[in-house]
Design brief:
The chain is of the alpha+beta class. It is 20% helix and 36% strand. The strands form two sheets. The protein has a four-stranded antiparallel sheet. Strands 5-6 form a two-stranded antiparallel ribbon.
C-alpha cells in the first residue's frame, strides 16, 4: 500500500559461494528502497559483503528492483574478484600481489 513502510531483516550465519564464482563471502547487508515516485519509480539496491576480511559494497538503481538487486550483487562480486587478481605493473613488468 502506498505510504506504508515495510522492512525485512535477514541474517546470514555462514559463508556462501556467490553464484559459482569461487568467491566465499559473508553477506553483511542487503537493502532496497525507492529513490523516486510515480509510475516509473526507481529503486536502489545496496549490498555489503565481507570477503577475506575486507568489506565490499555494491549498489545499483533501476525501475525493476530485481534488476537493481542483480546489478548490485554483480558489482560487489566484480569488486571482490578484482581484489584477488594478480596485477602487472606496466612500468616495471613485475607482478604485484594485492
Amino acid at each position: 500500500m502506498l505510504g506504508t513502510r515495510r522492512s525485512t531483516c535477514g541474517v546470514c550465519t555462514g559463508a556462501a559461494d556467490w553464484f559459482g564464482t569461487g568467491i566465499t563471502a559473508k553477506l553483511r547487508d542487503y537493502s532496497v528502497h525507492s529513490v523516486s515516485v510515480g509510475e516509473d519509480a526507481q529503486g536502489e539496491a545496496r549490498v555489503e559483503i565481507e570477503h577475506n576480511g575486507r568489506i565490499q559494497r555494491g549498489q545499483a538503481v533501476s525501475t525493476d528492483i530485481i534488476e537493481a538487486s542483480a546489478l548490485a550483487f554483480l558489482q560487489v562480486i566484480n569488486r571482490a574478484l578484482l581484489r584477488e587478481q594478480i596485477r602487472m605493473n606496466p612500468q616495471t613488468e613485475s607482478v604485484i600481489m594485492s
